[in-house]
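queue> holo job accepted (thymidine-5'-diphosphate)
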Amino acid sequence: MPTDKGLFITLEGCEGSGKSTQLKLLEEYFKSHNITAVFTREPGGTPLAEKIRTIILDGKNSEMTDECEALLYAASRVQHLEEKIIPSLNEGKWVICDRYIDSSFAYQSYARGLGFEFVEKVNSYAIKRGMPDLTIFFDISPDEAFSRKGGADKGDRIEQSGMEFHKKVYSGYTALCEKYPDRIKKIDAKRSVEEIFADVVKEIKRAEERLKCL
Ligand code: TYD
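queue> job finished
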């Protein structure tokens, strides 16, 4: 995507990777640099997509099949993309999204075992309409992240999926970093908040420069 449309940046990581803290710092950073940026999240981001989020994450929906889960994430993404992400980029705003399509690859393709092609197919609309310019992966293993966080959230269906599942999510992300080295930048998330944030800003500046040259 050209820079006059604003950059589309997504943040990814396992549960408890410190994304939320970095998102807050990024919000302050954009404000202080007078850059208009829309901060949003997946699943969700619009009223309808947030309703889909409630269904997906509800711990009571234990009968949900893996395929249904993948389709619901993809459905919420299409709505989010058309209603919020693309219009914002077209207005010249930056869009910073907490999780996006790589979460579907890590969680549904790799960890649920649906395979890359299935998830790619159900997300083909989003892939065609809006791939991120830059994806930052906060690299911390689930063992370390959960011990830092103090365990999994009991009401969250995905967080409750067990350590083996989260380990697969982590290897999924590692595989994605290798598959898309130009787009996905891995940042060591075991360090201090300040050190991590300095790398986040560095990667954003690099991406901006790279896209200007295209
Ligand atoms: P959330 O509470 O927002 O997680 P976090 O704070 O860790 O970002 O819940 C979103 C959950 O949905 C999270 O467990 C990751 C999962 N997810 C998928 O499995 N596939 C997807 O495509 C997306 C966007 C999220």
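queue> The two ends are 9 Å apart (CA to CA).
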